Amino acid sequence: TSRYIRRLPNREWESFFYAICDQCQSYQSERAELTKGFTHCNVCGSRIGRNQGIFIVPAFGFIAGQENPGNPGEEKPEKTYTTRVYFSGKSSGEEEKVCLKLAGGIELELTAASRGKLAVINNAGHYGFRVCRACGFTVLGNESVPGQHKTPWGNDCPGKMLNRYSLGHEFETDILKLYFHGYQDTRKGFWHSLLYALLEGVSSAMQIERQDLDGCLYPMPGNPLGSPALILFDDVPGGAGHVRRLVREESFKEVLQASLNRLQRCECGGVEGNASCYGCLRHYRNQFCHDELNRGMVIEFLAKVFPL
Ligand SMILES: [Zn+2]
Ligand SMILES: [Zn+2]
Ligand SMILES: [Zn+2]
């Protein structure tokens, strides 16, 4: 099926160069007209690998395929593959901070900020999308490009589809940054498991819809290859003040407790909990890491730092 990114007459899509570091996963971007791309990570200095490109901002939406010519549809190419969220490291609002002493000499630093800048990027599983810049006709990067294509209005389009693009956009919202001082963990999947456990905990302790929250990992500048920070954010345009409310010791203890309860109630992976499922950590938004999410590792961690 063919689909279109909607174009408006005389208006280009905004586009940005972006790069995600293979070593530390940090994100950087610049308007495509202002740069030729990135060679090195601006946090850890490693060479940028293949996780880079140009993303188009499909700000005018999408148009469904030729089955319904000219009829704007709900079907979005963006849903074809899982998307990833990245924190840029930038926020411009006022910050609030609190430190929580946990067991074992670990200290949890919570920093809330408004107007944190995040990016959502869909690179179609590294294949990207081939996009006709004239009419918006789009195919997945691993599909063959038809010799000819039609515009959404059924006319032959002279446009070419030479380059691969990602789709994405940047946005600002309320964020909460968590950093566990005095704790290192290099096990595969540990930090993502902890992140998604805490998001579930926030949702149930604060009675916020899980779909109004999301999160990502963020490498700490100065220690980019050590433990990452966890970024929780309001997945609501402009922010809703949800995660900001958590910068209180009592609130966050409730979150830790609710996170642990949910994981302990689940039965996947047996007694050791060496697994994850939709009843504990999995969510449609975190499909990219389902295989590595592990309930047992987080139970062990939370029970250690937060003894009842
Ligand atoms: Zn890096
Ligand atoms: Zn075209
Ligand atoms: Zn489970």
Quick overview of this protein structure:
With 308 residues, the chain is α+β, with helices and mostly antiparallel strands.
Annotation keywords:
15 strands; alpha+beta; two-stranded antiparallel sheet; 308 residues; binds zinc ion; 30% strand; 3 helices; 13-stranded mixed β-sheet
Task: Describe what you observe in this structure.
- The chain has 3 helices and 15 strands.
- A hairpin with a 5-residue loop joins strand 9 (129-131) and strand 10.
- The strands form 2 sheets. Strands 1, 2, 3, 4, 5, 6, 7, 8, 9, 10, 13, 14 and 15 form a 13-stranded mixed sheet that branches. Strands 11-12 form a two-stranded antiparallel ribbon.
- The protein is an alpha+beta fold and 308 residues long.
- The chain has one domain (3-305).
- Bound molecules: zinc ion (3 copies).
Q: pLDDT below 50 for ≥5 consecutive residues: which ranges? A: 68-80
Strand content: 25-35%
Tell me the count of domains: 1
| Span between termini | 55 Å
The helical percent reads 10-25%
Shape by Cα distribution = elongated
Q: Helix segment count? A: 3
Write the layout of secondary structure elements.
Elements: E1 3-5, E2 15-20, E3 27-31, E4 52-56, E5 62-63, E6 84-91, E7 95-101, E8 107-122, E9 129-131, E10 137-140, E11 149-150, E12 156-157, E13 164-181, H1 190-206, E14 213-218, E15 229-234, H2 249-265, H3 295-305
Parallel strand pairs: 4-13
Antiparallel strand pairs: 1-5, 1-10, 2-3, 2-4, 6-8, 7-8, 8-13, 9-10, 9-13, 11-12, 13-15, 14-15
Helix pairs in contact: 1-2, 2-3
Bound molecules: zinc ion (ZN) (3 copies).
